Each structure stands twice: as structure tokens, then as C-alpha cells.
Amino acid sequence: MAGSGQRKNVRLSKNLSQMKFMQRRSRKDAEEELETEKQRQIDDTHWYLDLPELISKGNRYETVDSLAECEDFVCGRMSFKGMNPAIEKFMENLQAEADDEEDEDDEGAVQVSDEEMAERYSTLVGTVGKMFTKKRNRSQTEDDTPIKKKHKRAFLKPPDE
Q1: CB within 8 Å of 67: residues ≥ 6 apart
Q2: pLDDT band of 81, cuts 50, 70, 90
Q3: In the chain, where does DSSP find H-type helix?
Q4: What number of CA atoms fall less than 13 Å from residue 28's CA on the CB side?
Q5: CA–CA gap between residue 111 and residue 107 (Å, rounded)
Q6: Residue 99: closest CA among 76, 74, 80
Q7: Over 97-130, what HEC string results?
Q8: Distance (Å, whole) CA 160 – CA 3
Q9: Rounded-to-integer distance, Cα 104 and Cα 109, Å
Q10: What is the pLDDT of residue 80?
Q11: Are 26 and 17 in contact (CB under 8 A)?
Q12: 3: helix, coil or strand?
């Protein structure tokens, strides 16, 4: 294999280079060389645009490394059923603080007096009661007087003559 290093410098004879398989090989080498040249030209000019520099307006988007901030998690780590007591204690403290804040918000809410509640309840009972009465009883509840049932007329036989 000592001759493999010298192979590049060896010139082939004219008869050998005119054979079909050698011509195909030389065409293929020439096409590959053209292709690499085209690729080199494309790479040189590909990412260059002759445009004036744009003034950056700043970043409109905020990047966040943690998913906890996106999902509004109370704390990043969680533990259940005594797996990590320190984290569970921390979670209880956070929950207690959140409950205290909710209680403070509830105290400032408008309260309904007993008279207003009784009045609203009495009207509600009447409307809900009407919904569940049967049709035959609805007319009685509206007038508070029972309606007499009308008897059906029976077929009268014509008199014999």
C-alpha cells in the first residue's frame, strides 16, 4: 500500500482516460467540484442583507425559567401524606396566610340585614312552590277556592216513537 500515497500524482494514459467508465468518473468529479463551488458561494452571501440597522424597541416578551410562575403555584415543591414534613409545614403556613387574607376581604363585603333576608326568602318560597304544584292544583292555589268539577254529558237516547 505504499503506492496509495503516490496515486494522486500519477497521470493516466490517454487510452485509459478515454474509456467510458473513466469518462463517467471524470464527469462526476467535475460536477462535484462545481457543486462545492456553488455551495461555497451561497454560504458566503447567504446570511448577509444590505439593510440599514433597525432600532431595537426592546423585548416584548418575558422569559421565565420556572414553570411555577406560569402556573401560579403557591410553592415550587410539594409534599403529601408526610413524605417531607418540612415542606408540608411550609405549605400549611402559606395556606394559613392565604386564608387570613380571604377573611379580611370577606369582612369588607356588604352584609344583608335579617329583614331583607326574610323578605327575599318569603318571595322565593312562593315562586319555587308554584313551580312544583301540579296543574290541577295550580288554579286552586291562585284563587284559594276549589273549582267544581263539571260532569261530562252522557249520550241521550232519542225518544221512541
Answers
A1: 73
A2: confident
A3: 14-17, 20-45, 67-70, 85-107, 114-131, 135-143
A4: 6
A5: 9
A6: 74
A7: HHHHHHHHHHHCCCCCCHHHHHHHHHHHHHHHHH
A8: 143
A9: 9
A10: 78
A11: yes
A12: helix
Q: In whole angstroms, give the CA distance from residue 77 to residue 88.
A: 9
Read off φ and ψ for residue 155, nearest 5 degrees. Answer: -70, 125
Q: Which residues contact 94 (CB under 8 A, 6 or more apart)?
A: 74, 75
Q: Which amino acid, 46?
A: H
Dihedral, CA atoms, 36, 39, 44, 47, nearest 10 degrees? -160
Judge whether 79 and 91 are in contact, CB under 8 Å.
yes
| Digit-coded pLDDT (tens) for 16-67 | 778 888 888 889 999 999 999 999 888 877 666 667 776 667 777 888 777 7
Spell 107-130 as b/e; 16+ CB within 10 A means b: eeeeeeeeeeeeeeeeeeeeeeee
Residue with cell 464527469: 27
- Give the type of residue at 5: G
